[in-house]
């Protein structure tokens, strides 16, 4: 990797100040003009604020009320079996607050109390068992940060640029710290038969959303989780217990988990035959494409996060992830892929978790075609959409990890486009 060019902080700030003074001059103001927000007493400094317990469970301040999940009304006939999107354009860092982490339901979010919760483990086991919530709490638990991405994330972009916002093109994803019991411990408690090569998992909701998972994965890193970001799961995320299947498509992360059956073969349920398979150009479909390949997106500037200032210092930032390992590098292009610069990772990438990247540039006010390209520790490089379509065609819904392009206009607005 080429050494990163160091930025002189004084020069950077001097450039920012010059740009600010230039903007003031353009408005007919002077550098000496008093700012009443500094010189005049303000209401918030002349009285008392709220006391403790005004909001027993803390909520975002009203000035941030636009940072919310959103759905696309025309996407589904009803919101009961639908999806909404994480406002990734308005977040920073990597951890997604539960309150704005995307939802995907097949028959609506149900209410199931801890007292009424039961988890059955049956099939090819020595001792079929039923666990209560209290039983699960007695097993050794682990904490891990993982991303959960719907296989259909970016699916509407297969045929071309469709939705004008990172929230809508890439927002079927969240990244949270999960607390739970390794599925391996529950299988060992029941004495699973080594002839059992698969587990079949299903939820307590009306759809059940049953999926088959290879035993190797079940014994590796799958969690039976009951906390996220340190608190109880939200109803829409499977309270009180859900499955966490690191790096694999979100449809496998069964919510309101009620049953785990050890089997000698996959069940071939609806969710792994007619759905969540990848239809190719010749009409055949690929099955068992569980892993989410390396992917990235610039979250700002983006259509919902335009540039509010003119030329000068600009922070380009986004997210990268891989279901096969850890992100090792992200490149950013400002000219539609003609040239690339290596971005700065906020932290070293960790397996199956989001990585935040930044590129600090001096914007000259000209148009830019912004792209990002992720690489993981397996050597995989995120493909262009053309490369992806050459292999997959245009019939797919799932697993679109092609490079996204944003067109930054001179006025600071941003548009979803494709570069051919």
TrEMBL record:
Cofactors required: Mo-molybdopterin
One GO process term, biological-process aspect: sulfur compound metabolic process
GO molecular function: heme binding; molybdenum ion binding; molybdopterin cofactor binding; sulfite dehydrogenase activity; sulfite oxidase activity
Keywords carried by this UniProt record: Metal-binding, Molybdenum, Oxidoreductase, Signal
Tree of life domain: Bacteria
EC numbers: 1.8.2.1
Annotated signal peptide: 1-25
One Pfam family per UniProt: Oxidored_molyb
PANTHER family in the cross-refs: SULFITE OXIDASE, MITOCHONDRIAL, SULFITE REDUCTASE
Identification of the protein by name: Sulfite dehydrogenase
Species this chain originates from: Sulfitobacter litoralis
